[in-house]
Structures are given as structure tokens and as C-alpha cells.
Amino acid sequence: MKKYPLDFNQSAKLLSQYGILPSGKQVFCLEDALKTAGAIGYPVVVKAVCEKIIHKSDQGAVRLNLKNPDEVTSAVKSIEKLMGRFSREKNEGLLVQKMVDKGFELLVGARQDPGFGPITMVGVGGIFVELFSDAAPGIGILTRRDVERMLKKTRAGKVLDGFRGQVYDREAIIDLTIRVSGLMAENPDICELDLNPVIVYENGYAIVDTRLIRDPDFVAPSWRRISDWKRKSVDAVFNAESVAVVGASRPGTQGGVILKNCMKIEKLYPVHPELKTIHGLTCYQNLDDLPEVPDICVFAVNSEKTVLIFEQFCKLGGKGAIIFSDGFAEIGRLDLKEKLINLSETYKVAFIGPNCMGVIDNFSGLNTNYIPVQRSVPVTPSNCLGVISQSGGIGLELLEMLGADRQNLGKWVSIGNAAVCGVPEILSHMGDDPRIKIIAVYLEGVADGLKLLQVGKTVAKKKPVLIIKGGMGGGAQAALSHTASLAGSHEAFRACCDQAGFYLIEELTEDPKIIVNILSILTSQPKTYGNRIAVVSVGGGAGILLADQVTQEGMALAQFTCETKQKLKKLIEKDLKPDLSAVKDKILSNLGSNPIDLLGNCRDERLLEAIRIVDKDPNTDVIIAAIYLQVPLLSEYLPERLVELKQELTKPLIVSPRGFSEYVDRCRTFMADRKLHTYTVPMIKPLRIALDIWKKYKMNFLD
Question: Which of 178, 261, 688, 696 could staple 367 via S-S, CB 3.0–4.6 A?
Fold first, then answer.
């Protein structure tokens, strides 16, 4: 059945059940318009009620401040000519309302999202709603805390807070937004709702225009909690003591690479119908020939064989599986996908995949990545970082970017088609693993948005979850209301991240290093809870650019104490040559300001001592050092000295070597191998997010 708008009387009846009282009365002729205007009292407003007229003001279908019957008569005739005619049968007529006083115009609206259910929005309203695009979304039945968070993200919220001393009824708007969310949750057939504008006053508000659209065919999304058997099965994958690789083969094949990458597993069983040994391991023709039932099975055979052997594995008592094999839903074989799912649920054996790159677990040694080590990155020592990727390719890129920056890794999972175990299941597992302290996720589609939201709330209370979402830039579909044009699925996903407590990183395509640098800063620097930044530079330009970025990201440049300033001046003064004595005062005049320019004649000791001085400054929380390692007076031993210096510092030291020469790259590699990570690409936004995480979680994430 087609979507259709409710008439004013239908809308008012439903809204009033939730304590939402729109003003006005719908009529269908001039006589009734005049009677209504007289009853409610002049001045009045007359506006068209017509499905074809959405933007009434733009189309001349609204007449304001009508002070007498003659003005009402003229307005009604003009609007009737615009509409063609009034029709009670089509619910196309006029809305007559009391003319309200001026106030602040808000939008409170909502829509039903197929993945998340009701999405309620609040923000700047009126005729400029699309221009400002200021509304912030929230999912489900909202709490006061949810609406407070939404308002903080909008300019409307700043106005309600009392911009320039003007007072508005903020509490009434919070209550209205909560009521709208309840209406939408309890009436999923209402697919779109607009209250726009809502005129807010010092006390109360007036709802000037309403629009509700019904979709009788909408099916509200639902979700099920992760079952205990699925949790146990996923845990078994990451704690496997014995692993069978079905489709293991000779070196150079996919099955051969997977087997070789799993060689750290003590009980590793290659399964191949013809081969006797692979990589020095005894090969078995089928699962029945194995000396024991393996904890997990890795499948690297075609899709039809996978289904048959997976059933056999389940019947033997296997605990979990990783299905690398493709040829399922992605090529239209939904029948094979459904068979796998049914077997999984029948025998209570979960699997990761199909069509995935599987798991790298640096705690257990399990590595089902089919990319040869010599073509990618070596296995690293384990650390506190977990990575989940819906895309095998993006997962590989993140893996290699971490490797390029000498970053270690705890767990890495490519979920593929996620037929049984999606992001929520793996996120829940990593959330429960005390060894994993930070989780980074890349995803594209959200098939189980409500489950992601609920699991995310639990996990994000304990540890930071950073999300990279593909497909955030697509435009919203054409819709029948203002709200729907603002609240595309990407807006629903942003609301999910806000409510769950995720950190949404949207710049992966433009700048992939942002998320890598966040992870690098957190896992290599001591925690700090302040945002006062000291910038030390060898060469003034780099320091100025970094200082600009610091303030643009909402952090503060440290204001050094008098003692710190004096120490810095003495440090520079003692190195001044006699021929510079005439300009000494000018050189020293700016010393002690932030950023600190240590001048082009800087040697190792001046740089190192300046950093020590700033580290002791009580008004500083973080030190950024912009260094041109190429300048002749800095020695080739500086990287080693910086590594030693890092050990004695109490505050985070973010080193930014400037330039991209081979020498700079060698220095960076030397320092990274000794746990002093450096940054020649964006670091200020990553630093700001890292500071937010330290402040929220009050914990160190050091390797």
C-alpha cells in the first residue's frame, strides 16, 4: 500500500495521545474558515493543506496576520485558486490557526529507519531547515540524556542554552522531543513526522505546522541478543588448541598460504584427499581420519564442499569455524548460505565468514590470512589493539598501515559476508577480552543496527571503539518531508555511534592515517587528561602551522610559567655568538611564547633541553616537537638521543619529523623500532581524539 499523509484532524488526534497539542482547525470552505477565525480570535493564519504543496511559504500557500473577515476572505480565495479546489474527500483544504508571537523556530521531527527503527531529530527549523541542516538525530525512545547530547551538537542547542542572554524553554523542548520518540516507537506505521516550525518562547512553545505520513507496509526492525552458544563458539575460535585446514594444499596456493600462516598452532591438521604431507605436516584425507576432533575448522574449498564438510564437522562435535570460501550470497547462492546458517543454529556451531580473510590472533598464533607474509607484513608481537573489518581489502590496508608504522596488533578479524557472526558478535568478544583495550572497526552496511547499538553501549563503557564507516557520503533518498531529507541512513548511523559511545572517524578515504595515528598515540604515549599543548620547533614555519591546527581542533596552546620562560631564554642566550650581541634582545624577546622556535642553528642539546624544560612546566599537558632532522647542526645521533629522552619524560611527546627524504625515513624507522613513533602526516586531529579517549576512560593503553 502506498504511503499517504494524515489529515490535520487525524494528526492532531494521534499527537494529542502523547501530550503534543498542535494549534488550529482544518476546514474545507470559506464559510467554515470565517467561523473558525471568529472563534479562535484575530489575527489568524490561513494555510493550504494539500499533498502536492510541501513548502507552503515558498509557494504562496500561507497567509499571515489576517486581522479581519475581509482579509481572511481574500486569503482563502487566493489559496483556493492556487490549489484548484478544496476537497473533503481528498482531505485537501485549509488550516486556520491563531497568529502566534515571534520566537525561536525549531524542527522536531522523526522517521522510521529500516535498520534502526525510529529516528527522532531536533534542530533549527522554519523555512531554512534544509539550508542549515542543523538537526541532530537520536534512535529509539529517547532519554533526557540522549536529547541533551543531541542539542549539544546543534546551533539550536546553543540558542536554547541562552545565546546572548535570551531565555527559551529548553526543558519543554526536551520533553517534546522525548514524546515524539515515544510516539514513533509505538506507532511504526508513522514513517515520517514533522513539527516545523515549533516556536519556542521563554515559557512553552507553539506547534505551527504538523505533517505525519503513514506507511502501512513498514516492518519495524527487531534484534535478538547474542545467544550463549554463539558467544562460546566465537570464543572457541580465538582460543583454539587444535585447528583443521580443509583445502590445505602445496605452497603457492591459497590453502597452502593459510596453512603456512597457521604454523604456530601446535595441533595443526591439513586436510586434503590426495596429498600425504604439506609443510612437513601429515595430511589427512578427511575429517574422519584426524587423530582428534579439532576445536575449529578453516574452510578453503568451494562452497558446495564447504557445506557438506561443515555439516560433518558439526556432527563430530567441532566448536567453531572460519569459512574463507566464497561462492555464497555474493554470487546469488542464497540456498547455500541458508544451509550453512541452518546447520550452525542446529548444531550450535558458529562460523566467521563466508567469503572472508578470517582471523589473526597474535595471542594464540592463529592466522588464517591468505596473503603471504613476504607480500604483506610480518606477524607482530601481541598488544592491546583489536581490528574488525567488514571488507577484507580495507582490513588488509589497515593491517599494512599499522605494520608500516611499526604498530603491534592483538586481534584482527575479517568478517566477510557475516552470515552468522557480524560486527556485533566479534565486538562483544573483543569487549570481553581484557587483553584488548582498544577496538577499531571498518564497516559498510549495517544489517543489524539495533544489535550493534546495544552491544556497542556495553563495550564502549569499558573501552574505546573507533568506527570507520564506508558509504557515509551518499545523498538521502527523495522523501515527503523535511525530516526525511535530513535523516538518511548515514544520519541514523551517526546517531548509533553517538548513543553507543563510539568514536566515528569519517576521513578514511581522504586520509587513512588518521585512525592509525590515533591508535599509535594511544598505544605509545602515557595518558594525560589535559589539552594544553606546547609546540617546540626547529624552524619556525612548521611550529606555526602546528600551532594553528592545535587551536582549530579546539585544543589550547600552553601558557608557560615565568620560570619556564626564563629557563628557555637562558638556554638560547648561552649559545648566542658574540657577533649577535647587538640583536640579542630582539632574538630573545619572543622566547617563552608558544610555539617555541629554537632557530635554525639549533644543536641536539638545545632541542633536548628545551623539551625537558617544557616537560616540567605545570601548564603543559602534551609536547609536540617539529624537527627538520636534515639540518646540518643536528647530529645523526639525535634519533637515539630522542629515544633515551622519551624514557625520562612524564608527558606525551609527539615527534613530527618534517620532510620525506630517505634520511628522515631511516630516522623514523629507527625510532619506531624503539617505541618512539613519529608522525609526518596529520597528527593534530588524532591527538585531539586521543585526548578525548584518555579523558573518558582514565586509563593507559601502552603496549
Answer: 261
Strands 210-214 and 242-246, sheet pairing? unpaired
Residue 582 DSSP code: G
User: What amino acid is encoded at 357 in this protein?
Assistant: M
pTM, 2 dp: 0.88
Residues 6+ apart with CB under 8 A from 271: 244, 245, 246, 247, 248, 283, 284, 285, 286, 287, 290
Strand duo 503-505 + 93-98: pairing = unpaired
**242 three-class SS:** strand
Cell of 349: 556451531
By CB atoms closer than 10 A (0-12, 13-18, 19+), residue 628 is: middle
- Quick: pLDDT tens for 400-421: 889 888 889 999 999 998 999 9
Query: At which residue does the C-alpha cell 507553539 appear?
Result: 206
Closest CA to 270 of 257, 261, 259: 259
Among residues 516, 435, 456, the alpha carbon closest in space to that of 701 is found at: 435
What are the distances in angstroms from CA 620 to CA 277, 613, 614, 654, 682? 62, 11, 7, 13, 21
Q: How far is CA 215 from CA 189, 193, 399, in A?
A: 5, 12, 44
Average pLDDT value for residue range 79-91: 85
Burial 490-510 (b: 16+ CB within 10 A, else e): bbbbbbbbbbbebbbbbebee
**CA distances (Å), origin 376, targets 141, 253, 261, 397:** 46, 16, 12, 9
Highest average pLDDT, of 34-43, 93-102, 430-439, comes from 430-439
pLDDT at 441 over 90: yes
119 vs 139: CA distance, rounded Å: 5
- 3-state SS of 450-473 is HHHHHHHHHHHHHCCEEEEECCCC
Cell of 500: 553507543
H-helix or E-strand containing 615?
Answer: helix 604-615
DSSP state of 99: P
Question: What is the mean pLDDT of the segment spanning 586-606?
Answer: 79
In the chain, what percentage of residues exceed pLDDT 90? 67
